[in-house]
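User: Could you check the structure of this?
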Amino acid sequence: TALWQGALILQGPSEYWIAVINAGRRSNLETVRAALPPSDKLEYAGQVLAVLMHVGDVFALAGDAGATLCCSEQHHNMHKLAVEHCGSCSLPMPKVEEVADGSLRLMPSGEGVEADVNVMLTDKEVEVNRKVKKAFCQPQNVEFCPPLDWVEELMALHGNFLISRKPDNGGDKTYLDLAEMRQDFASGALHPGDLKAAFGKAMNSLLEPLREGLKTE
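Assistant: Sure, the predicted structure tokens are below.
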């Protein structure tokens, strides 16, 4: 089941915003600063609001005693603050489980905002296409090539990966293992434009059933 922040707020706007306001009353700027990602500095009022609204989001889920908040190091501090607020209000305290960052960012570390450099389960087709178009994909660079990393995961699901090309560009080719694709990309036989186009098409195909499911909720 997908829970949208906007829907949660509209279901009980008074309760939600009271939780956010109360979180603000219990916090000071040092508390908020400590809840930010390790690499972030507290510079904007929007960062304060984002932290307090995160507490409100977790409060909305805290009725489930078995709730687990999974996150990377990037959001661990924010989850920790929200759980502490749950405890101070005698609500069930969700478990925080930190998981390793995936290696599937579409840009080098430190570049872009998280929502733009990661493929989200809720991304629409146009959003996936935009992200794939901007993805780092330097010709013949197989050391860091996010589309190739994604293709490796997609091949694990489907067993093969189709590159569709015009006959003048080599024609269609179905890869059965990533090693051959990496070799073609390293040699220049596989162009970044063709790789990106196939990657975007495959991602949209994978996400389409989920999109249809979300429409019915």
